[in-house]
Structure formats: structure tokens, C-alpha cells
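@channel anyone free to eyeball this complex?
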Amino acid sequence: MIMSNPNLQPPERGLTLSRRDLLGASACAAVAAVLPAYPALAAGERTSQFEEAYAKLTGDRKPTERGVTFELPELAENGNMVPFSISVQSPMTDADYVKQVTILSTGNPQPVIATFHFSPDSGRAQISGRLRLARTQDLIAVAELNSGALVSGTANVKVTVGGCGG
Amino acid sequence: MNKPRIKLPDQAKVGEIIDIKAVVTHIMETGNRKDADGKPIPRNIIHTFVAKYAGSEVFRAEFGSGISANPYISFPMRVKGPGAFEFTWIDDDGATLVETATLNVVS
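replying in thread with the prediction:
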């Protein structure tokens, strides 16, 4: 797995998963393996569910592709656990801050992966975690500022074995 | 849903922006899978995570099925003063897990 960002390392000591956790995850992967995988999407192709969710989120506001750093590994051997990191440029003051960030998937069965809510007291608009991806796809992070304006960033990841439910 | 683990910095100063890391064990069942008899396995995910500090909400996340099992999250906070965190996870079965952690604020 290619890691472009040292912050994307697994959780630090004290947050490591036990053997039992890992066994649970493998069982999940084993079930997924006997089910048919989602067919590959053509480059840049997006599911209709994604288009619907994107339209609902953005409405008549067109996001500006600026100031959103969305980091993913280039290649994920296991779609069940793909580390991500998102950072949105913002002074994070009462007058100008990022209210929320939503991650949308163009290739998962359910397109809305998560929404994260921030306030000026967050200090930075930054988040990291782990995604479950059904197949190779683009992911889009849409950030809403307190002004109502939207900014977005896109990341692509190649998934070798799709996530649970695939 | 159990075994919540929280990672805070050993100490923090007022005004400093710290990163808080939280993880909990949970299957995060997507609702897309079928059991051996071909029946759909109902969705059961943690849909909400809330972090409060000194009684005020400082971060909230809504998860969908695209968040990995044993959800791990790292988020920032500017330290306004001494206090304790209260973290809450809520899943589709209605189970709620609460964990607290005190931040060591130094001058």
C-alpha cells in the first residue's frame, strides 16, 4: 500500500486492534469473497445514487474545487479498511470557518460515506479515519463554509479486493 | 460495540490545537450482505459519534455504511481551558456507548 502521508499510519499505541477485532474483520472479508464483486466502473464513471446524493447535498450551489486536500493511498489491497485524511484551508474564526465536510463515494452502493461537523473551536478543519470501498473509484469531499459556500476536493483510489458487502 | 479507546496528548496548553483519536469495536454491518440462506443481513452501523468537552459539543460525525468496521476517527480541537471529554457512539440497534477522558491542561 502506498502511503503518501505519514499521518495516515494506523492508530497509535493504545488504539491498536486486538486479535479478536482482526478475526472479525477477516470473517467479514471471507463472506465478501464468496459473493459476486461489483463490476468495475469506467474511469470517471459515477453511480446514479452518487449523482442523486451530490445533487441533494449541493442543490443550486456549485462547489469550487479549491482548498480541500483529500489524501488516500493510490492503491488499496483491501477495500475494507482504506485510510483517508481530509484537510480544508480555513482560518477557522467565528467569521470564517468550515461547518461540515461530507465524503461522497462514486462507486459504493451507498454514496454518503460520512459527514463531519466542525466549529471555530475545532481550530483546524481536518479529519482522518478509515473507509470501506466496494471498488476502484473517485471520492469527493464537499465542505460547507459558514457563509453557505461549498468547496470540494477529489481523490482516486484503486481497490484490489472490494470491501465488505461486495 | 465495546472497548472504546481514546488517545489524547499527554498534556496540552490553553489555545493549543490538539488531535483526539477515538476507536471502538463494531461490526459496521452494511446491510448489503446476505447470510448463508440468501437472506439480507440487516444494516447495523454506528450512525452517530459525538464528542463533548467541558459540557459543550466540539465535534460530531454521522457515519454511513462506507466507514470501516471498528471505526477510527481523528479530529482536532482548540483547547479553551481545563476539562473532560465525553464521547458517545450510537448504533442502529439503539445501543449507546459513552466514554470519558480528562485532558491534562498545563499553563
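from a first look: The interface with chain B takes residues 11-12, 14-15, 17-18, 21, 24-25, 28, 31-32, 35, 80-82, 103, 105, 108-110, 112-119, 121-124, 126-133, 163-166 of chain A (CB under 8 Å).
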